[in-house]
Amino acid sequence: MSQKSVLIVDDSSSFRTVVKLSLMKAGYEVVEAVDGQDAVTKLDGKKFHCIVCDVNMPRMDGITFVKHMKTTNYKFIPVVMLTTESQESKKEEGRAAGVRAWLTKPFQPALLVDTIGKLCV
């Protein structure tokens, strides 16, 4: 089986590192983006099996990124929002944009890995 790849989109480098280490330990290949705009540039033909994205970021927030992504060849890639946002209205906005799962920070690495494992089929 080939290694599955995950795109992490978060403006916190320390947080990206924690997520990256958790996913790499579980056998995933990881690509990092510093915000939604940077993530758009990473959608350059590389195959991703899942995207983990924060909501609040400079330049392009996570929900705007997901809306953009869903208009591209990447529209079927599952997105997990990993964010401090927990309001039902934000979750609804995310679901409407195409987000498949919503986890809040601080998070349990095992839960993130399990969630991605269920979505990356």
Structure characteristics:
5 helices; alpha/beta
Largest β sheet strand count, sense and barrel closure = 5 strands, parallel
Strand order of the largest sheet: 2-1-3-4-5
Enumerate the spans where pLDDT stays under 50 for 5 or more consecutive residues. Answer: none
Number of strands: 5
Structural class: alpha/beta
Radius of gyration: 13 Å
Integer average pLDDT: 94
Explain the overall architecture.
- Helix 1 (13-25) crosses helix 5 (109-119) and helix 2 packs parallel to helix 3 (62-69).
- The chain has 121 residues and is α/β, with parallel strands linked by helices.
- The termini are close together.
- It contains five helices and five strands.
- The model has no long low-confidence stretch (mean pLDDT 94).
- 31% of the residues are buried.
- It has a five-stranded parallel sheet with strand order 2-1-3-4-5, with helices on both faces.
SSE blueprint:
Elements: E1 5-9, H1 13-25, E2 29-33, H2 36-42, E3 50-53, H3 62-69, E4 79-83, H4 88-97, E5 101-104, H5 109-119
Parallel strand pairs: 1-2, 1-3, 3-4, 4-5
Helix pairs in contact: 1-5, 2-3
Summarize this, please?
The chain is of the alpha/beta class. Helix content is about 40%, strand content about 20%.
